[in-house]
Design brief:
The complex is a heterotrimer of chains A (about 425), B (about 120) and C (about 350). Chain B is α+β, with helices and mostly antiparallel strands and about 120 residues long. In chain B, about 45% of the residues lie in helices and about 15% in strands. Chain C is α/β, with parallel strands linked by helices. In chain C, strands 2-3-1-4-5-6 form a six-stranded mixed beta sheet, with helices on both faces. In chain C, strands 8, 10, 12, 13 and 14 form a five-stranded mixed beta sheet that branches. The chains are: A alpha/beta (about 425), B alpha+beta (about 120), C alpha/beta (about 350). Chains A and B meet through helix 7 and helix 8 of A and helix 3 and helix 4 of B. Strand 26 of chain A pairs antiparallel with strand 7 of chain C.
């Protein structure tokens, strides 16, 4: 499978009378955007805002972050099975509006999630303080049930991202990269001496607001399976996970999966990147056993020499992570796992809810309980009144000067378990 | 025999017709402790005690499915003890909360639990 | 700004008094710096200086622990220092334990900023790294320069009351307190590097060591319980009321052996727990909850077991070094063997 990705660097973003992309500047027509969101009769009102790096802006509560992309050549379209037909993607040519992002917000439940600060100390902890963001703030019709609201919100974000991505279809990329994964046989012939490495990606799949979709299929109803790196780049996996802001994988993370890119970086040089095994994180313990058994079976079937395992979320997934690690290691395949920690505000508590001696190589995204004080920013997009109800916030955490003290878990992407960030802990 | 240990009225009401329910009038940790006591008596966990990314004591609700077995199931015991440890790291966040919010927590717990039934 | 006042602790060897033959050297306070202190003074420059050095022989310190500790502490206190440094002890075991003991005492009793340094395998490291900042060094004095280079910036931060960052950034031994910091590479790239090293059998350092699993293979089952002698052993700190041997509530330095002859039930009037770090109310109300003598007597009467062993062994698990716990157990295990005990029930808190 071979995909050519053309990166168009977005330099600025602004509202205008007509939507277009010119010289790296995104011009967006609010009316056209509104129409796309309000197609869904479950959404009564939508507001659009722009938030740029360095702005004194706080966005909260963040639901998802999506990078605009468009399929230029080859089968299928972006977000297959959800926005486009279910055709297998990952080959041909795709354009990426690099440096821009769609951020969706909205109050789905009374307790909330996710802060993005565009400047100040909080900005260091979220990757989305560095992107030019179109914020989509949605209000549902009255009485809409939570799961329908979540669905409406998620789909609107994806539709907007597809619309904005489409504006880059005819643009000339600033950089073009070709990503190619050989078939099993080709890989063996081409790199007989390189270690065979796969990426085992765990997907959040516990229920309402804790879901992930693969080609439109709810991941909790899937068996562990194999997917290629370039399919992810075309949006084969999207996030329906709105809980645990710091260590949830947004759709942006899935599109730009850092493990995939860093393995591709060394592919054909130091290792042979065989592919990706996706596996879920269900609540039912028998599901965990089955999924991790299948993960280990596939790892063995692929004749792996090593695997990187990434996690999503807190608590329940720790068990899946350790099961996957233990069972893959038991097949004689070395692993390195990526997680984050809940070591308490003072850092002295046991970090994970599960552990095993076979997990000898661990990368951590940091302690999500560590406190951070975020100064008052000039503008809030969304609703700051819910900050004390954000995971990681607490009652009475807003000081007189308008600053708020929260745990890092309140910040979107802060302790990402795909290893998207430089944050770590010792 | 399967048994649901829960402090969530929504779960109790939805499943009481055809499931054994051990309803707990207490907080999150009380449910874990009740489940642990059952494990001591030979029950085995069927669902993960830390289901959901909403943190323990942030949500007041917890529902766990167990089934009876013979002898003590050590993986269940270690899982429930780890969950209790994790629970102790998080102070109760909303000693009082608006009804609407309580209802949302109840719904999330219910849907997470239902995904396993 | 005035130079910070430092008191430095070293042993008889580094004070150039002598080797093992002088290890009984009693505590002595000298003005100014001696031996390794020179290197510290140079490195501190205008920021700080060693105003006094306390010297003590390693044998003397370890064999007269309470007295030596009190004397040394008094000497340190008399100098009214802003900062206290012990060692580095490198791989000298008793010196390392002395450095750790004194540094911990300076921290808890005098409240003065302090640190020490030693080789990671020095027994003092395991005993004290969670109590005080210990800078890891090489296993011999060859590592002096490197040790001083790492200790000085950490010492100054401590003295100025600045926040101390992650262990790998500030160069102290991991102490069980997790601290965030920014790495040079992102997590995924670190994972790829770590996996490549692991696959190639090359050394790598995990960012989160799994909790220590000291797994013990169980002995074969006792076939004939009806004639077996069963002993009770606990790390839950159950002791006769009044704690006659003064077993410490944490970091216990001893264990106790107590007679159960004629004892049918532990009551609030006769037994209690010495254990700190957990709510003792329920253990004190009825110590059988931790050390189930009452149930064992029932089983004895019912003929399920042969008999309950006459003595029980007890210590406090709270913060007690694994090494010490192992030593206690290997001592009383011999006693249990001599008494032909067939099985032991171990209870904790």
């Amino acid at each position: 499978m071979k995909l050519e990705v053309g990166y168009i660097d977005i330099r600025d973003i602004c509202f205008a009378d007509s939507s277009r992309l010119e010289d790296g500047v995104l011009y967006l027509d609010k009316n056209a955007l509104s129409e796309i969101v309000l197609e869904d009769k479950n959404i009564s009102k939508v507001e659009f805002e722009i938030a740029k790096p360095g702005d004194s802006i706080r966005i909260t509560p963040v639901k998802d972050v999506i990078e605009p992309r468009v399929k230029v050549e080859g089968p299928g379209g972006i977000f297959p099975g959800v926005i486009s037909k279910v055709t297998t993607v990952g080959s041909g040519k795709t354009h990426v509006l690099r440096g821009s992002a769609i951020v969706t917000t909205g109050k789905i439940v009374g307790f909330q999630e996710g802060i993005i600060d565009m400047s100040g100390p909080g900005a260091d902890y979220t990757p989305f303080s560095k992107t030019l963001n179109l914020v989509v703030n949605m209000t549902p019709v009255e009485g809409l049930a939570q799961h329908e609201h979540e669905h409406a919100n998620r789909m609107a974000g994806l539709r907007i991202a597809a619309y904005v991505g489409e504006l880059g279809k005819n643009a000339v990329p600033d950089e073009t990269r070709v990503y190619e994964t050989p078939s099993i046989k080709e890989g063996l012939e081409k790199y007989p001496d390189l270690p065979r490495v796969a990426y085992i990606e765990m997907l959040q799949s516990q229920g309402l607001m804790h879901d992930t979709y693969v080609y439109g299929v709810d991941a909790k109803r899937t068996l562990s399976t194999i997917i290629t790196p370039t399919e992810l780049m075309d949006g084969a996996i999207i996030s329906g996970n709105c809980v645990s802001a710091c260590d949830k994988n947004t759709t942006y993370h899935h599109l730009n999966n850092p493990v995939v890119h860093d393995l591709l970086e060394k592919h054909g040089k130091e290792l042979n990147f065989v592919g990706i095994i996706i596996t879920n994180e269900n609540v039912y313990l028998a599901d965990k056993e089955r999924s991790s058994d299948w993960t280990a079976k596939l790892a063995e079937f692929l004749s792996l020499d090593g695997a990187i395992i990434s996690q999503e979320g807190f608590g329940n997934p720790d068990t899946d992570l350790i099961m996957n690690c233990k069972k893959v290691e038991a097949k004689g395949i070395p692993t390195c796992i990526i997680t984050d920690e809940y070591a308490g505000r003072d850092g002295s508590s046991q970090s994970l809810a599960d552990a095993d001696a076979s997990a000898t190589a661990v990368v951590t995204g940091g302690n999500a309980n560590e406190l951070i004080t975020l100064p008052k920013l000039d503008k809030v997009i969304g609703d700051l009144s819910v900050v004390d109800r954000i995971a990681g916030g607490f009652n009475g955490n807003m000081a007189e000067d308008g600053s708020i003290t929260v745990e890092l878990q309140a910040i979107t992407g802060a302790t990402n378990e795909m290893g998207f960030n430089k944050l770590s802990a010792r | 025999m399967e048994i649901i240990v829960t402090n969530n009225p929504r779960v109790r009401d939805a499943y009481s017709a055809n499931h054994e329910i051990h309803f707990i009038s207490g907080d999150f940790s009380c449910v874990l402790i009740a489940a642990r006591d059952l494990i001591h008596k030979g029950f085995r966990l069927l669902t993960h005690p830390l289901s959901g990314s909403v943190k323990p004591n942030e949500t007041p609700f917890k529902s766990i499915l167990l089934c009876s077995g013979s002898g003590i199931d050590l993986p269940s015991l270690s899982m429930i003890e780890n969950a209790l440890d994790a629970c102790r790291k998080f102070p109760i966040k909303y000693p009082e909360m608006p009804d609407a919010m309580r209802d949302d927590f109840s719904l999330i717990d219910y849907t997470l639990f239902s995904s396993a039934i | 700004m005035a130079k910070l006042r430092i008191v430095h602790y070293i042993n008889q060897f580094f004070a150039q008094i002598g080797g093992e033959e002088m290890a009984d050297y009693k505590p002595e306070l000298r003005e100014g710096c001696i031996g390794p202190g020179l290197a510290f003074n140079q490195a501190f420059g205008e920021d700080a200086e060693i105003v006094a050095t306390v010297i003590c022989g390693d044998s003397y310190f370890n064999e007269n622990l309470d007295e030596a500790k009190a004397t040394v502490l008094e000497m340190i206190k008399s100098q009214n220092p802003d900062l206290f440094i012990a060692g580095p002890a490198f791989n000298a075991g008793r010196y390392g334990v002395a450095c750790g003991t004194i540094t911990a005492a300076v921290k808890s009793e005098l409240g003065i900023p302090c640190l020490t340094a030693m080789y990671e395998e020095n027994p003092g490291a395991d005993m004290f790294k969670n109590q005080v900042y210990i800078v890891p060094t090489k296993n011999s004095a060859v590592g002096m320069r490197d040790a001083v280079k790492k200790m000085v910036p950490l010492a100054l931060k401590l003295a100025h009351g600045e926040e101390i960052g992650a262990s790998c950034v500030e160069h102290y031994m991991p102490n069980g307190i997790r601290k965030n910091f920014f790495e040079k590479k992102r997590g995924s790239a670190r994972a790829v590097d770590m996996l490549l090293a692991k696959m190639a059998g090359k050394p790598f350092t995990t960012e989160f060591p799994m909790p220590d699993f000291d797994r013990v293979t169980p002995n074969p089952a006792v076939k004939d319980m009806a004639h077996a002698t069963i002993a009770l052993v606990t790390s839950g700190g159950i002791v006769p009321k009044g704690n006659p041997d003064h077993i410490e509530s944490s970091s216990a330095s001893k264990y106790g052996e107590y007679d159960l002859e004629g004892v049918m039930d532990l009551t609030a009037d006769t037994y209690e727990t010495a254990h700190g770090g957990y709510d003792p109310v329920y253990a004190n109300q009825d110590a059988d909850r931790v050390l189930p003598v009452d149930v064992m007597r029932d089983l004895e009467r019912e003929g399920v077991i042969g008999k309950l062993h006459r003595y029980f062994y007890t210590t406090v698990g709270n913060g007690t070094a694994v090494k010490n716990a192992k030593r206690y157990a290997s001592e009383f295990a011999q006693e249990l063997l001599k008494a032909n005990v067939n099985a032991v029930i171990l209870t904790s808190t």
